[in-house]
Input
Amino acid sequence: MALSAEPMGEPPEPSGEPAEPIRDRAEPPLTRRRAWPAPTIRLRLALLYGAVFLITGAVLLTIGYLLVRSGLRDHHSLAATLRRLGKPVSSDRLLSQALGTSPGSPEVKLARAIQHQLVSNALHRLLLEYLVALLAMTVVSVGTGYLLAGRALRPLRRITATAQRVSGENLGERIALAGPADELRELADTFDGMLSRLDAAFASQRRFVANASHELRTPLAIMRTEVDVALADPHAGTEDLRMMGEAVRDIVDRNERLIASLLLLARSEAAPGPGEPVDLAGLAGDVITDLRARAHDARVEVHDDLEPAWTNGDPALIERLVANLIDNGIHHNEPGGHLEVTTRSEYGRAELWVRNGGARIDPETASQLVQPFRRLHRSEGGFGLGLSIVRSVAEAYGGTTTVTAPPEGGLAVLVQLPAGAPPPRTSRSPVLSGDPQRSLTQS
Output
């Protein structure tokens, strides 16, 4: 029985730490490597190219081999040629005549055996050469296919790298893939479109939070001041508390209207989709009817020239667009002023013109009124969101908003939307049929 050559000593003292398991010593984790490369699309395409070449090459070489064998054995013999010429002479007779012996002699048999051996050797050598050439070209085709697949899939790696870099802070990055309009280009354009929508949604959310925090800060401070003043007065009576409650209620109502406007602005910036056919003329007529009493109280004369102007969109959002423009024209007008509302459709665009009278406005200031919380005078009330909602709704459906200040005073707003086809005559549009739920101007 063999003994170990290692010296025996005292057992090691315990160190206080748990001993490492034996299985971890024998085979440390995460040390094995894969023996085969990862089955990537590039590798699979290369192997597919090689398999296709191997099959087609084998079929082609088999056909060539059979043709060569048939030619060597039959088509190029002298006897076959003489038979086609009408002189039936056997190959054995030709050999006997050439050798000067009689047919069936040992010399003829030997010559026939040598002939068959030469043909067999030639065919065997040809078969080996075909096999070597087929294997070599298969390897070349796999390598070439690997390179071509890598070149074809290069845009896919670019798309993957961009997707890995994109986060909530750099949604403005785009792939902008150039090249032919193939499937990869379509994938890249679709990914860029998704990033654009995400960027718009994130930007809308950030603006909503910033605008809400900015506009709600002052009302909340006023509410706190009202409450602190009422609580700090030990002699405050019922009338004082009632006045404080009414002031707080007015501020709460104002904040509710502000939040509703901000939510509508965020909704309009979210690109709601194609929607359904909407007639700007019908919406403008309904809004003018709803606001006629307000225009009469403000002593504003309303003139309308409404021609059919069909577009596609959400009827509620499009009506809010029209209502904001007409309400803005009535509110920011002068006593005895005028308001002109025009709709028309031309050059593939549905247009809505709203012009109101009033004091002269600086053209540069007028062009900035479509930005959120931009007002000519803070004393006029409102939040400065009316025209920004108009601009957001128009841009959500591929339209534009142009604000100009005429020299004679007032404001002129032009909204252009892509023209749409009217609905079939058999259908009834809920926007124009007096649906009680459709009017946003009565909210």
Summary: Strands lie at 276-279, 301-306, 310-313, 338-346, 349-356, 400-404, 411-418.
